[in-house]
Amino acid sequence: MATVEYRKIGKSFGSINILRDISFRIGDQQFVVLLGPSGCGKTTLLRMTAGLESVSEGDLMIGDKRVNDVHPRDRDIAMVFQNYALYPTMKVYDNIAFSLEVAKMPAAEIKKRVEHAAEILNLTDYLQRYPKQLSGGQRQRVAMGRAMVREPSVFLFDEPLSNLDAKLRAHMRTEIRQLHNRLKTTTIYVTHDQIEAMTMADTIAVMRAGKIEQIGSPDEIYDHPASKYVADFVGGSAINFLPGTMVAGAGGPAADTASGRIVLNGEVSAKPGQKVILGLRSTDVTVDSNGPIAARTVLLERLGHDAQLFCNGPDGQFVAVVEKGLRFDEGSEVRFAIPPAKVHVFDAETEARL
Ligand code: ATP
Residue ranges of the ABC transporter domain (predicted)? Predict the structure, then answer.
């Protein structure tokens, strides 16, 4: 069973504390994405898992073994780096075979594994080339092949697609996910790209300043963000945050904002008078002449499939995703509505979900 478990993991570099109280378990065959902005500590956590950084506090478990002091070579993991880390003077075949040769595996077995990996990764025709004769996507596949042939219990990926252009990135993320569906190797994947996280992960761990802010499935994280931070970070399009105050006697939970009174989901547990922040995704609001939110149009930005309407309201900029065929006069008033179940409500002070 290739499970990975972090038990109260902490990390300091000298007197600087980078990771605090990280505790969660990754089940066998799971694909977990560590998601967060630059500097939040996700690469450090991955490198600790690989054994490339020491563990300052807590227990790091792979399977049922504590591996804090186990050499990287003996952890049965393989890591794919952002820069691929290929040997430029070796052909693709030798790059993929290298770790098996170091481990003194019989040549026939090495050949079998390299050819099998090359077939899965569409590299069969490139085995006799040097890395510099390959495209970025092909180099990325060689790096994956090198990890695959070791048949590790756990794959670690450190932003493996960030050097590729947008189209190739989208293609490679489906390839990596398909590869996982096929091999089912437990995977930990680091990225700051929330679309990669949403499309690839079984489970996303959202990190913030050295801590885990929320762990859940992509749908849980998108539909029930635990904090304003998560709501802002996850979701392909803009989200509007409106400060408000809970009101009594509205027949159910509601909040007054400078833009209008917004009816909330009956499950919201906030008291009248409580200061809140409402999160309204631009994809959840609709143009509706009877809607509670009023704003003035500034710009319509066409996105091909639909369009983003930028407005100015009493709470500042307000963005809505609208049909691209809609026409607006600049500066005209538009009203918007949103279903109560789609309004995310956060405490104004703690910014935690209510
Ligand atoms: P990025 O996406 O930019 O790589 P990240 O979330 O992966 O960011 P880390 O690389 O884990 O972040 O770094 C977390 C923090 O730890 C940063 O503030 C970084 O400056 C610091 N840090 C990382 N490695 C070291 C080191 N060897 N010595 C001191 N500080 C370090």
Answer: 4-234
